[in-house]
Amino acid sequence: MGKTDKDILTTADTAKLLGVSVRTAQLLIEGGSITSWKTPGGHRRVYRADVLSLIDDRSRPAAPHPSATVIVLGTAERLAVYDRLFAAAPECTVEMFEDVLEALVAVGSVKPHTIIVDLAGSGAERLPLLRSLSSSSVAGGSQILAVGEQSLVPRDLPPRVTGADDPESAVSAVRATLSDKDELTLSNETFPIALNEGRRLVALERSGLVDTAPEEAFDRLTWLAAHGLKAPVALMTLLTPTRQWFKSRFGLDLPETPRSWAFCNHTVMQKGVFSVDDLAADPRFAENPAVKGEPRFRFYAGAPVLDEDGFVVGSLCVIDHKPRTLTDHESQTISALAALASDEVRLRALDRKLRESNRRTTEKKDGNAATAANEISGPARRGGSKSDLGRA
């Protein structure tokens, strides 16, 4: 039997059913958390059953959140090649290992988007792990790539293992599967965006940080950044589709700016620290309203802030009113503080998961207790007193 009109929902219908904003529903749909399709007129539609499955994960095993983490296992020489190649891939976070056991532990803890097992060099040592991952639930929904010449890759591996001849081909394959850019539309886009910007926005929404009250943990980090780098302004920024919102700010009264103003648009496209000695002299920023007019910013340095799945949700940055050059020590400082900010974001995600787990446990206990009470009281409701039941 085909689907009826009542089974098909618009984005607004989806938002109402989920109890979220239309924008949040749009992000969930565009990010792939809810399967959708486009009408001839270009409008998104989803099935009610898919939305209900998202609400009640007891109806089927919950799909893991999409991850932006890639794990690479190989020799030191090959890892250096991957490090260089992935430096130009801002849409993912990469963890590299020479040791098989360390790689396996990482796979179990971060649930990566992709696992790359490079068989060049001492590849025989990594074959058992490759076979284990290809048939184990530990890898979950992770994509698995076996990299090496055809003679190195066994032909009897399961279909879920994809072959790649070399690191370049492997990285290209990873970036292709990470990309959701064709599905995303940002109005008046005047800034660079990653290939998986839609998924990044879903991750930001999932973090629950946007438009929340100030928190001492983040305020300490911006204070340390400003004083450690002797900068008048320090910010922890979060980039929504239209806004650069400041979770924490030191030395600036504005709570947010249009996203098109954000220097951090470039920071979230980097693996490390992004800095500009003189914003007014850089053609990318010379016409920026915050550079051309008040508060006339001149220097910027920032590093990405990551969530538990490796998505870049924003940045920790410092800004100055005069041109300057970032020193190596200052670069290390801002990088370390951004890492601490990332840890705080992950801790909040862990806390949410624990609270959700406790809520579900409580609901299950309450449900079991209610069922037991109904079973006990059932005979009495159907007629007869305790003495009647005893005589029976």
Automatic annotation (TrEMBL):
<protein>
    <submittedName>
        <fullName>Histidine kinase</fullName>
    </submittedName>
</protein>
<feature type="region of interest" description="Disordered">
    <location>
        <begin position="354"/>
        <end position="392"/>
    </location>
</feature>
<feature type="domain" description="GAF">
    <location>
        <begin position="213"/>
        <end position="355"/>
    </location>
</feature>
<dbReference type="InterPro" id="IPR009061">
    <property type="entry name" value="DNA-bd_dom_put_sf"/>
</dbReference>
<feature type="compositionally biased region" description="Basic and acidic residues">
    <location>
        <begin position="354"/>
        <end position="367"/>
    </location>
</feature>
<dbReference type="InterPro" id="IPR010093">
    <property type="entry name" value="SinI_DNA-bd"/>
</dbReference>
<dbReference type="InterPro" id="IPR029016">
    <property type="entry name" value="GAF-like_dom_sf"/>
</dbReference>
<dbReference type="InterPro" id="IPR041657">
    <property type="entry name" value="HTH_17"/>
</dbReference>
<dbReference type="Pfam" id="PF12728">
    <property type="entry name" value="HTH_17"/>
</dbReference>
<dbReference type="InterPro" id="IPR003018">
    <property type="entry name" value="GAF"/>
</dbReference>
<dbReference type="GO" id="GO:0016301">
    <property type="term" value="F:kinase activity"/>
</dbReference>
<keyword id="KW-0808">Transferase</keyword>
<dbReference type="Pfam" id="PF01590">
    <property type="entry name" value="GAF"/>
</dbReference>
<dbReference type="GO" id="GO:0003677">
    <property type="term" value="F:DNA binding"/>
</dbReference>
<keyword id="KW-0418">Kinase</keyword>
